[in-house]
Amino acid sequence: MYFGKEKSEKVSERVPPNQVVTKKWPVLHYGNVPYYEDLNKWDLRLFGHVEEEVRLTYDEIMDLPQTELKNDIHCVTGWSKLDNRWQGIATQEILKKVNVLPEAKYVIIHAEEGWTTNLPMEDFMMDTSMLAHSHDGDTLTPEHGFPLRAVVPHLYFWKSAKWVRGIEFLTDNKPGFWERNGYHMVGRPWKEERFSWD
Question: pTM for the complete prediction?
């Protein structure tokens, strides 16, 4: 009985205000789900305030040092999923492939269907931020972002863009898709930064 209470308290400490824990992984997105038949036609573009634009193929991405991270994720719609295991490439490894100019303070992550989201550079560079290709040991499904999705677990999960195709480095903060449509510019779950008026 006591152990159960202790475990419950520890879980509650991991769940931000007004979130409900789920074991499922809801599929939420705007637009169509892209399906890739030929990954030779896929690449990741690194551009903006950089010395020279870089394009990385899928094979080049997969040849980068791989990492595994475990974290909790929190959706702005009110669900949290605990103890996720992600496999992929740390964003700090991605940054080694491009010379970002020192005045770049923000990134815009570009995804399929014209979807974008913005991040301060320090959030993008955190040790917990990555570009993931697998979840809990299985390759991501198309609905969850195959072949590559961002994972920025300390922010609401809309900041973890699916189907990533580009990372743009900016001097000024610019809203992404959901931010232009009323979502918060930062999105910290523990501060309940859900909407621009919060």
Answer: 0.90
